[in-house]
Structures are given as structure tokens and as C-alpha cells.
């Protein structure tokens, strides 16, 4: 079958790009091996899809070339996508930090994308594994489990490696390499940390506890919450910093519960109170956490008045800079995204077309552009998909 455009991958980027190309009158087919379309979108945001972020800007993305994402993000912005969501009457709300979620269900976003494709006469074919690509003089030949397709423009929107059970494959990277386009080193990002046995033994008792924390690593800091799990550490602050963490690095957590924490403890001590340190800390932290963290920090639990000023300041400093050395991450099994990907030096930032392979485009997560947690990765899918859709 011959068509103008083939998009491999019916995820966020692929479906959105296909609809834009279809609206331009291009004959478009989207191929995906999954049974269910938009699997990741359906799972996202706890089933409510954090579909964009009101404050999205190039600073929220990691890439070997931090300038690459600027063009696409400025030509199709979060406000453009929000306008589309409004056009479909999808009720949504800001959860925190500009993160927009559907009030009801992520399925509304998938339905919207499929409806856009339908309006643009795009054919979406599921259960269609793409097995290989060949290039002829003018066309691409796409070999699939369901036969052969031929097209002028080929869009690779196969995503990254995270969550193989949702259909993730390295296929996009293989296509890049086949056409001589390098792929920067990839690793799991926005992913929980696992701990060394000695830390795990103590901290797994806190499974389910969440506290506010500022997580820092490699000159980057995120102020959000952290969650203790039976395997290690998770929660927004941890997922965010995991994208900046390299094996062997230590992460510093500032878990100071209030700006005037030290002053308050000193004032209480000076008031000659009989309160135990743990009782005072219980005002700020979950009880279960206090017992464990005092043990982790090796702090004796005594009435406040029994510590001298220097000792209390030293205690506060432990809360200010709790150093944890993760053993690793949970990997692609639970990672939200893949860091790294198709080398942006080889792509046009205006069109997403491969500079040396006319007609071949890469969009979405397969490209070396990775967003922070908070709707940024979907915004990259929409923006990169939209720009490619104008040129394919
Ligand atoms: P995506 O992975 O969505 O799609 C790729 C498609 O290609 C898949 O449908 C796959 O089946 C198909 N494919 C792969 N190989 C193939 C082959 N050989 N043949 C045929 N088809 C093939 N981001 C965000 O901004 N807000 C959020 O709330 C969340 N939440 C979230 C939760 C969870 C659990 C995960 C795993 C991820 C998120 N993300 C997120 C990240 C976000 O989902 C992700 O960045 C985008 O879905 C990437 O979109 P793409 O279209 O690039 O790839």
C-alpha cells in the first residue's frame, strides 16, 4: 500500500503529528503494534493524564543540546494544546506547579487525539508490528507483520524504553542507527531509587510515608515531596532528581520542616521544656518517620533541655543535609521516561527531519529531549509532533 506519510507509533507524538499532516491534506497511516492505542496516555497522571504544564519552557528539558527544543516549543505551545482541550470540553484543573490534569479521565485525551485523526482522515492501524524499513530512491518501504507499506515521508514516533509492558521497544533507535544517525546514551529517568541493603532495611519500615523535601544532586534542586517505598525512595522530588543522578552519586535531601526550624528548637530548649525531641518533631513529621530518622541520624532522643545549643544546631544540620547514596534505580520497568535518544545534532529543530535523510522524521520521546516531571514530556510530544506535521 502506498501513501504520503507513515507514522510509526500511535502514542502522544505520533497521533498528534498524524492529525496535523492529515489536516494539510496528506494521506496518512499510523502503525502501532499495541492492541490498545495510547496506552501510556491512559496510564499517565494516575489515570488523569497530566497533559501539559502552564509554565513549560525550554529550561524544563534535558538534552545534549538544550537549545534544540526551543523552536518547536515556541511554535506549538502549552496554550495551543490547552485551547484544543477546551475545544473538546475536557474539564481540567491545575494540581500543583502549573500541572494540568483531566478532571475525569486520561481516556478523554486519547479520544480527542483519535477524533482529530478521524477528522483529518488519518488511518490508524493497531496490532501492526513494524519490523524493518528500506529506503528506495524516492520512498520508504515499511515492512510490518501485516504486510508492506510505502510512503514519501516516514515519521518515527516509537517513544523510549520505559515500561516495556506498555509496548516500548528500541525500534526507533535502531532505525536511527540504520540511517547513520547516532543515538546518545540512554537511561531510565523520572524513576524511583533503590537503596543499598543497610539503608533499605531501616527505611523500608517507612513504606507509605511521604514528607516534603528539597532533593539536590549535580547542582540541581527540586522542592516537592518524597515517598518511602518498600524498595527505596520515590515521590515527585525523587523522580525529578533521578534525571540528574548518575550511578555512584549521592543525593542530598533537605527535610527541614520549617524555615525557622533551628530557631524554634532553640527557643523551646531555652524555655526549659521537658518535651522529648521526638515529641517536638512529631508536630512537623509523621510519628513513624520521627523514630526512624532519629535512629538513622544516630541521635539520642532526650528532653530538649538536655541538649546544648551546639548539639541542637548539629541536629538541625542533619535535617538540612541528609545524604543518601542510592544503589540504583528501578529501571525501565517503572521509569516514566528515557533520558537520551536520537542525537539532535542530526535533526532540524524546525521540522524534526533528519538532516542527512530527507523524508525521515523523529518526534516525541525517541529524540534526545526529556522533560521534567509535570506534563512537560507530553508537551514535547505535542510540540514536536505538531512541527513535523507541518512538513511531512
Ligand atoms: P509513546 O511511548 O507514547 O508511544 C510510542 C508508541 O510506539 C507506542 O504506542 C508503542 O506501542 C509504539 N511502538 C514502539 N515500537 C513499535 C514497533 N516496532 N512497531 C509498531 N509500534 C511500535 N508525561 C507527562 O507529560 N505527563 C504525565 O502525566 C505522564 N505520566 C506518565 C506515566 C507513566 C506510567 C509513563 C510510563 C509515562 C508518563 N509520562 C507522562 C511520559 C509520557 O507518557 C511520554 O513521554 C510520552 O507518552 C511519549 O510519547 P511518544 O508518542 O513519544 O511515545
UniProtKB/TrEMBL annotation:
It is an enzyme of class 1 (oxidoreductase). The keyword Oxidoreductase applies. Its cofactor is FAD. The keyword Oxidoreductase applies. Its EC number is 1.14.13.-. Pfam families: HI0933_like (PF03486), HI0933_like_1st (PF22780). Residues 187-337 form the RsdA/BaiN/AoA(So)-like insert domain. NCBIfam families: aminoacetone oxidase family FAD-binding enzyme. This is NAD(P)/FAD-dependent oxidoreductase. It comes from Alteromonas arenosi. The lineage of its organism: Bacteria, Pseudomonadati, Pseudomonadota, Gammaproteobacteria, Alteromonadales.
